[in-house]
Amino acid sequence: MKHTPALLTILLLTLCISVPLSAAPLVKDGKATAEIVIPKDANPIVKAAATEFQGIIAKMSGAKLDIVNEPTGKVKTKVWFGENEMTKKIGMDLKEVKHDGYKIIVKGDDVIAAGVDNEWYKHFGLSEDNLYRVQDKWLKHTGHNWRSPMFMEGLYNQCRERDASRSLGFHDGIDSTGTLFAAYALLEQLGFRWYMPFADIGQVIPEKKDISVADQDIKSEPAFRYRNWSHWRGCRDEAMWFKSLGGGMSEFIFFYHAAGRILDGKEDPECAGKVNGQADFRVPKLSGEKFRSTFLQYLESANTFYPKMLPYVSFNQPDGWSTIGDEDVANGWDKLKERGDSGRYSDYAWDFNANMLERYNQKYPGNQQRKAFYAYSGTVGVPTQLSGKFIPEDMTCVFANTTAYDHLNPDFIGIMKEWFKCVKQPEQFIYYDYLYDRGPHRNYPPTPYIFTESLKQLFKNVTPDKCQGFLLEYDAPFGGMTKPENQNTNIGCPAQTHVMMYLYSKLMWDPKVDVDKLLAEYYTLYYGPAAEEMKALDKFGEEIWMRKAPRRVTASSGNFKEEDVTKLFDMFGKARAKTEAGSIYAKRLDRLASEMEPLKRLFVNLHRKGPTIQAGRYAEDTKCDGDFTKAFWKTVPSYPLKDMFTSAKPDHVSTSVAFRATPTAFYLAIECREPKMDRLHDRTKARDDSGIWSDDFVEIRLETPTGRMPVININPAGAIFDQDTTDPNVANLPAFYSVTDYAVKKHADKWCVEIRIDYASLGALIPNVSAPWGMQVSHQRLAGDKPEFYQLSPTGKAFNKNFEMMANITTNKR
What we know:
The chain is an alpha/beta fold. Helices cover 29% and strands 21% of the residues. The protein is built from 23 helices and 35 strands. Strands 23, 24, 25, 26, 27, 28, 29, 30, 31, 32, 33, 34 and 35 form a 13-stranded mixed β-sheet that branches. Strands 15-14-22-21-20-19-18 form a seven-stranded mixed β-sheet, covered by helices on one side.
């Protein structure tokens, strides 16, 4: 290794050479002077702690400490893992240890590391017998075509198919593993660090010929009792990395979208809300007696499916819920529409939750189970029924948010504080954080994933006296990322994301930990001679992440710019120049480089591949009235919309669009030929009503040369949903963007949309050859027997995917 910084030398000396005045020797001159003692009947958590400690000490010193079931007398020092009769005699007592914490006692020749261990699967009778092919067993058990509770499928995958849990003998993300935490704490005292899930390049292991553990008597307890990374591990290393970070749960709780499960099999139309007079199984009729009684039956089935009743019940709403049925709208349950998607359905859902609580407690009087409900999406806002009141003591609010976006939407912090006023005890609140931005379905580039300032702010607001803990939902790897066979992981871009996961985990254990100090140590130990350069690169990565712009990348918009690519790789090159080829630091940088490599092709791939269309110019503006026979639209060519997936032009219907440009505005004329006008879905009547997604509609998505990307949806009833998440004025909400002039006109066999888009509203100039606009026009048709989707420039995916397939709109010279 060359160019070793002075700080690194000092830190390594501190971690590796310092010998306590009073200490228990483990290794002397590279030879073992201790043995690890665990009982024959030790639980698998204790066994894993012993094995992990043995392996890391061997990597440090070359000496292998034997694992025995009782002291042999061959060596002086005994390292005891787990609480048992022998350690109790020495002085270990875990009675006062909270949650899944631990104690470490080092006295004389004895080193004892033990913590609170709970094997939740075994405790509640969860095994391959009841989890293998769980859906088949669930259908047989219930006699109904309901979907099984979501978490059961996840447990099955970990229980049987995932090597990590099978090789460990316990479930890494779920069981309480205090003894394993204690083992890692001992190793950290000796200078061990584990920053990234791959042991070969992620671990920092100092070389030592002599190893001793200082006399001590310490107790450590996690600040939050629930610290669950909802994530399937790809291998044993990945599972153990999460445990080294202190992840786990001292109470067995899972959350799933329970309230929608009785609809997934489309068994009973009476449980579904009606949209345009027809049952829609995406819309639960939460107010209905049939839905409520059926859902109670569903919960009863969950209680009888296992040998023991679980300690929680989930009332949680379906994922992506955005519509209330016609009857409930008529009955006044859509009264919070002014809230938009941040709480529009709160009152509706709370009425259901309160009623289910009453029914459930009548069914099971005296039960101690916690009842979970989501504050999520359309229910994130506090319901008006709770104004000045507390939620019932046996209910838990699962507040779903995305920390990485807090700086873009500060309203979430305020909403969360309103929920804090409604809870008395921390077990009534859990923070559910989405960390999705490295998933293949997110159009975000593989840049360093850093948002330390947002994280600091989060833990200033979410404290142990208010919150039971965290559920962090992580995503699958970024598309195209390479995964060497010996580095199998389900973490998206681990070389970029690991430091945020490391910091998040440390803060969940101790929210008062010094984040800046942790980072300083991290850069010094992990990147060695390139510490300063990588610190600068991550600082720039956080600057990119914190820009007040949307998390999307297109040819000309988003918080990530084309010039950022050059700067990032210049900074990376400086870091690479500081490391010696083949060194551990170079290998870590090489892994990062392999993940960032797609950046070099990103903007080339994002240049639009759709057709170039020339909009006809016109000298004067017109009033939108839906009449395409007027002079304004004469001689203007129209362009057909094709099947979104196959690019075929349909025979049974047709949709076409024409374009006009005046000196002040851009116009579109969309004609939807419809043989079944009487079956149009157009229930939504109000402006900016998200129920429009359940209707027939046309969608207009633009991209200006300055990066503005408004989205405009219009249905046959004339309802419009217009927004712009790319508005550079951070004081403006997306809904502030507003189309000022448009019209919908119905005919016997078609419906037509005419719309005007003012250049000034987008800070844009008239489209031209040098600066074309991106344009996508889509049509969702529900009037037929099944949903159909058409586009001006077919993407092969959903409307909001493949922005590179937008058409390029220019104008003629007049």
